[in-house]
Design goal:
6-stranded mixed β-sheet; globular; alpha+beta; Aminopeptidase
Length: 143
């Protein structure tokens, strides 16, 4: 099966970005510095990757981490600021949702932490805001 799709002028591939590209894209959206080896290990341990290129330049990506059974976590859905507003985030999420529709079975939990101001984007895909009547606030810890 060919895992590369050409959408208009962009190339969409089911593959991991190079570590250097990942770090550069994170920097472009203001997510700060990250140790190269930490980033490489994290990318290598992901369950699923989707990337978008304009010719050879990485302009968008998303990935899923987790145990591949009960827990799936959508991580690093990033679009280069120069390409935001062109629907690339939706393309990335559509591929992520297709993967999850096969991989995540009844009883699985799919989570994500939306960037501030991006919550409405994920609501379109059925993700719930927290807190709500059933769930408390989402929480995290940064090291």
């Amino acid at each position: 099966m060919d895992k590369t799709v050409h959408a208009n002028k962009y190339v969409i591939s089911v593959e991991s970005p190079k570590t250097e590209e990942f770090l550069c894209l994170r920097h472009k959206v203001g997510w700060g510095e990250l140790d190269y080896n930490l980033a490489q290990t994290s990318l290598n341990n992901s369950l699923f990757h989707i990337i978008v290129r304009d010719k050879s330049q990485l302009i968008g990506m998303g990935r899923i981490v987790g145990d591949g059974a009960m827990y799936f976590y959508i991580q690093d859905v990033i679009v280069d600021p120069d390409y935001q507003g062109a629907g690339l985030g939706s393309i990335l999420m559509d591929h992520i949702e297709r993967y999850l529709s096969v991989a995540a079975k009844k009883g699985a939990t799919i989570g994500l932490l939306a960037a501030k101001g991006k919550e409405a984007f994920y609501l379109r895909y059925g993700y719930l805001l927290r807190p709500n009547d059933m769930l408390g606030n989402g929480m995290c810890k940064f090291i």
